[in-house]
Each structure stands twice: as structure tokens, then as C-alpha cells.
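Q: Here's a chain of 422 amino acids. Please give me its 3D structure as C-alpha cells.
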Amino acid sequence: MAKGDIQTPPGTGLVGSLTSDQKELLKQMWAEIFQIADSGAIDVPNELLPNVETASIKSKTDTAKKGWFGSSKPAATEPAPSTRVNLADIGLSVDQLRPALWNNILGDHPDSLLLRFLRARKWNVTNGMTMLLKAFKWRLEDDVEEVKSKSEDDLDAKYRGFKMQMELGKSFLHGTDKLGRPIVYINVRLHKPADQDAKALEKFTVYVMETGRLMIQPPVETACLIFDMTGFSLSNMDYNFVKFLVQCFEAYYPESLGVLCIHKAPFVFWGVWKIIEPWLDPVVATKIRFTRSDKELAEIIDAEHLPTKYEGGKDQFEYKYIPVAAGENDRMKDTETRDRLLEEWKAILWKFEALTREWIECNKKEGSRPEAVIEEERLQLTKDLRVAYFKVDPYIRARTLYHRSEHPVLQADGSAEWIYKN
């Protein structure tokens, strides 16, 4: 199958719903990742090399092979020699890429992450891989893991105004819409650009994105955003933040947005919209919906899930920030248990890698095991990976508001349970 563009047929392109063509392209993308793991080099389009004066071009056959965890391990196949660019020349390394991949996957089906980038680039493997590498580089440079490993108090001490976003209720997650997508509410009138450092707002945005990902429960893969424009004035407008948010959805968390409702936008907003609209990728733009009344909002969110502050809503929910509790992150100090659980998780990763390599090659060799058998084993391993990840999660990730509320949304097994007061 050539690495060209194909259109996604209706209802396909997601885990468990792939056409044969899409499956082959997914295999190609996994093969590219394994080539990085084996050689530390990959085919990279010129656009990914803006700062490289003299790229170190190497043949795969001339590059020392490295295993997934850095140890020596033979590759499953020996493809024909091809021109490669060493990842070090673009500011990435094998040792960085592996954590970037799996820290991004979390407890999801591993195929899900790759498919997001493939769909975002219309199933062009080279373009999808370029996009994925750029997202990994951003996650490393911006230290995305920081918002997961540090408590809200620690983040607030480093970034002025971080916790204020939560205390004000400027943005929070609550409930799901009619399609089962978790809902992020943003009360725009509460935002004043000067009230917090710009970096604090970016870190809080990443915090919401990374926390929200835990609430997206399979087979759902996207979220619903409600930009509540009630009371909006030009003093609330923050163009730099809008640019960052757009970049997140387009480049760093592709295919994560299901619908973005701009709710009750006042007349003054339409001048702002003329500036913002050209920044949007056409795919993202199609997911924006203007809801002019609460009745229109109720077309997206069931009344039982919609807070009573909106007309027709029956959920007597009122947002309240619950501060960090003393000792809630003590398990992160238990390095012995952490290391043991990490090793158990990594052992399953090794099995998943080996099985995925077999899956890539299974239809190319005589005597290979049936693809359906391998796929069933891969599916079971993804379930084992999820269980293993959430066992180690409290030892490597700080607890959030959604872990410590009276009725915690985020459960120990990775599920999300919403309570509605009807």
C-alpha cells in the first residue's frame, strides 16, 4: 500500500473500526516507530529540519541498532537500505522518544494515539509521523509531564496564577454530552489576561487537556467544549491564549475535539471572531458550533447532565474547588513500589512491541500465524497494559481535583464516574 492519502469512510478510522487499507497504514506507522527504536534514525521531510545546517544522513545498514529500552535487540526484518536522518540532528533521541510515546498513550489502546495523527493527516504516513515527532518534541520541551507529576500547589508556586484558574472556576470538567464525550466548561467572563502569567495559563490548559484525557472513556475519543460567552467584553479577550489553544487541538492533541460550542456570544464578539477564524484549520473549524440559546445547548447535552444554571438543565451541580489534601500524594514517595509496578508495566510493553512486530509481518511470510489470532492477543495485551498503567498511576502522577472530590470522578481502575444531582 503506498503512503498516499485516502479518505476515511463513514464510521471507520478508529480502533476496532478500520478498513483493510487503514489497517495497513497503521502497520506502516508502527513500523516507522520501530525503525526509530532500532536505529535512532528515520526518513524525515525537510520541513522538520529548519535548524539543521548539515544533516547527518545515514543508511540504516550503517547505523547501530538499539532496542526499545536501549539494549541491543535484533530487528524483526531487514528492509532495503534507505536514506535516513539521525534524530539527534533535529533535537530528539531514541531515549526521549520512547517515554514521549508511552507517557502520551497512558492507559489508552496504543493504536489510538497513532490513528489520531494518521486521521489528522488524511492517512499519509510520512505526514502523520512528522506531526507525531513534532508533538513529541513539544511535549519534551514544554515539560508536559510536569503538570502530571506536580501537585496543584507546587505548580501554583512556580507559575503565578495557576491555581487561581481552578479557584475561580474559569474552566472545569463536568459530565458528558449526548455522545458520551466529557464536557469542559470555560467561563470566559472570568478571564483577565493580566491576572496570571501567560505560562501559568498555558500550563493550566495542558493540565485540563491531560486530565480530560483520563475522562475520555473508550470507545469515545473526543471531548465537548463549552465556551460560555455570557458577560463577555473585550477586556476578557486574550489572543495569545486563543492561538495556543488552537495549536493544541491542531498539532499536539489532534482528533481530540468533538465539538466546540461558542455559547451566547454577544455582538462585540463578532469583530473578534473575524480575527480568529482565519487561524483555524478547516477540520477544526467544522467542529465549532454557535449556540445562541440554552435550548440549543440542550440539543447537545441531555437535560439530566446539564447544570441548572442553563435553562432546561436538571443537574443541580455547582462547581467548587477542593484544595490539595495533606498526604494525598504520599504514594509518590514510595519509590520501591513505584519501580516494581513500572517494571511490570514495561514487561507488558515489551510483549506488545514483539506482538506488533509480528502483526506487521504476518501476511508477508509463509508459515506466519493467522492475523486474527495475533490481533486477538494484541487486544488482550492492550487491556493488560491499561490495568498495569493505572496500578502505577498514583505513584507517578499527582492527584487532581477529580480524584479528591466528595464523589471522585476518576476511579482507581481508570474509569470515570459522574454524579448528577437531578
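Q: Can you summarize the key feature?
A: The longest helix spans residues 335-361.
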